[in-house]
Amino acid sequence: MSDDYKQPLTHVIVGQKIWASVIIAPGDVHPAQSKNKMSTASKAIFDGKAPVKKQLIVLAITESKTHFICVYTSTFGSSSKLDPKKVVDSRNWLPIHPAVGVYEALAQPQGGDGLAGWICLSQTILVSIADESVQPLQVFYPEDSVAKIKGKVGL
């Protein structure tokens, strides 16, 4: 891999969705009754030590321009309603239309897939701009949606 390829991702913008390998703090979802029923990603999240590849929404870029400040998204199998057996607190999840939850759902982003989705509000995640696992997606949330998310997470 050439050094040119390792340049920081300066073309990612606030409101854009990215893939990145991150460590998700456990505590927002209940573990399955059996580890055999858990996905590999779920096992990594509950372990809390291994990175898992997740879709994130970039809410801001640090003043030093070295990190993205993000929230992660989940689909819960494209479920339009949260299953109380799976989530610890429904107030920690912001729905993306057509999902319905405690809060008013955000509209689908430009380039979105039209499926129900959920944004975790209980944690923000710092991702290095130089992180080679980052893959920008052509999915963009408008400024008002980003502002709503930032308000919910306290940014």
TrEMBL record:
<protein>
    <submittedName>
        <fullName>Uncharacterized protein</fullName>
    </submittedName>
</protein>
